[in-house]
Design a protein that fits this description.
By secondary structure, the protein is mainly α. It has 4 helices and no strands. The radius of gyration is 23 Å and the shape is rod-shaped. It starts with a helix and ends with a helix.
Length: 111
């Protein structure tokens, strides 16, 4: 039981360190995602304005444009990286919450 307790404490401490070390990184990834979203919209708008035809034809041309599709891919990559780190951080929070509950149970003599 003592080793198990130390293992849980170790994991909780590592989770706290991980959260503190990734604060800036998650903010930067979120900012990158927002930046790529804005760039994507600007590229779409620029394409829409420079092509001819009806509104629907111009929208279609903007959607299939290679530059716009590359911008969409960059946006999805940025979103994936942001969400992956966000999920890892949420897992660390769950681990810390479990450790707190376990510690409380130990202190109250339930474990």
């Amino acid at each position: 039981m003592k080793n198990d307790h130390n293992y849980r404490t170790d994991r909780a401490e590592k989770a706290v360190i991980y959260l503190s070390e990734t604060d800036r990184q998650i903010a930067e990834l979120r900012a990158l995602y927002e930046k790529t979203k804005r760039q994507n919209k600007q590229i779409w708008s620029a394409i829409f304005l420079r092509v001819d035809g009806s509104v629907e034809a111009r929208k279609a041309q903007a959607e299939v444009n290679q530059e716009y599709q590359s911008a969409q891919a960059a946006e999805m990559t940025a979103l994936k990286e942001y969400e992956a780190l966000k999920n890892e951080r949420e897992s660390a929070c769950v681990l810390i919450d479990f450790w707190r509950s376990f510690q409380k149970a130990v202190n109250e003599g339930h474990v």
